[in-house]
Amino acid sequence: MSTATCEETHHVFTAFGGSRCEVIAYDATQDDISAVVADTYAFEQQLTRFDARSELSRFNASAGARVAVSPLLGELLAVCLDAYELSTGLVNAACLPALINAGYDRSITEIRRRPAPRIKAGATSRVPALPDVLEVGNGWARIAAGCAIDLGGVGKGWIADRLCERFDNAAINLGGDIRTRGPGPDGRGWTVALCSGRVVTVGDAGIATSGTSGRRWPGGHHLIDARTGLPAQTDISAISVIAVTALHAEILAKSACVLGIEAAGEWLDARGAAGREIIRIDASTLSRPGDRPGRSAFGSDRESATMCLRERGSGQAKHRPGRSPGRPRAR
Amino acid sequence: MIVPLNTRALKVAGGIGAVAVCGVSGLLVATDPKPATAPRRRPVNDVSSNAAALVIPTTCGTTGTLDPALQSVVQQLSQATTAAARRTALAPLTASQRLEVEAYLQSLHRSSAGATPTCDSTGTPGVIAPSVVEAPASTQPLINTYVS
Fold it and tell me: Which chain B residue lies closest to A186 (C-alpha atoms)?
């Protein structure tokens, strides 16, 4: 095991369906970086829906039954419930049947290789309220019969946060979901290019971009509107959001993209997004820099409140079907 | 020797036998010494004694599923005060074990925070917002976010 500390390590790799991933760290050994890459692959292997052997696939296959789950899957399912609540139902992990109906029935790599997805004409999948169909306890979980879970970007955001928290000065990028931590390479923060190319400097932050321009195919794309069960009809091509963590940024970005330009701004402001960049379908750009005149980027005045995921109790059953804590209000 | 018995005689004999057996059994139970502290009814809320010996199938388990061998790592991570100490604690583990441990810690954090909720999904003071400033036009970004 090497123990020499690298001054700077920048490693690029591919994961999550061919997405570019990278880790930049200033206080890490090569072994630390190797662990980040290995853990990313292990995470993907355990929770991908495209492999019938993954724990997530086996969990979906056992719909209707209460089954033991690993701490990892249990935590991610609980996070999905929190994401549902934070997004007022717009980020709904129970959208997998709708995704498949929309044509996303194989990995995006396969769809791109063979661009004739089996879109079921006229098929719509009502997406049930997640708290009504997902029950998560301590070491077990249950998804209602006929339902299935897709962790989507929530998983990427979560693992980006965990990996970055292992370092004092690092940035992790997992397919566009970024978590930064520490003062950056020169002590002035991390420079990040948003979806439009505009560059901002951030400190400890999460940045995520969502949109309809990425994973798409003839007649559809991967961003399901849980209110309709169909690919979102939105005027946003791409939106980057800056928030407290990569997970929060991912949830906010996806929700805002589904809502569209008119509603997105107010919605994000109400949830404390620190900055955003929106590209319309017609390629024009809307910005809200997030910079505040006279305000130090990394000084001691970072006191303003922002959103956080609602923490839940640890009772026997944290979430019970039929006790929906957060119905979609944006229907 | 064959003794012919009619049905009525058989019923009487059977009844006498049953009464005798039940009587003897009752007598044995009544005279059996019992511990002075034995409860008359099973305590419903007492989880101290026999509950620990119960083996609950994993398919309906309500206990944590983290590998007991990893508990020491959880303890090390809980006590770690620096990122380097956290990495040192995680280093001997496999990738899957690291993920399980970190997820377990997150769920512990969630549990402890849930006991005294400090924020909700719409925002409550106490969480530091990330600072964001516009970079100079000529700045080359270190990292890019994009639709994947």
Answer: B142
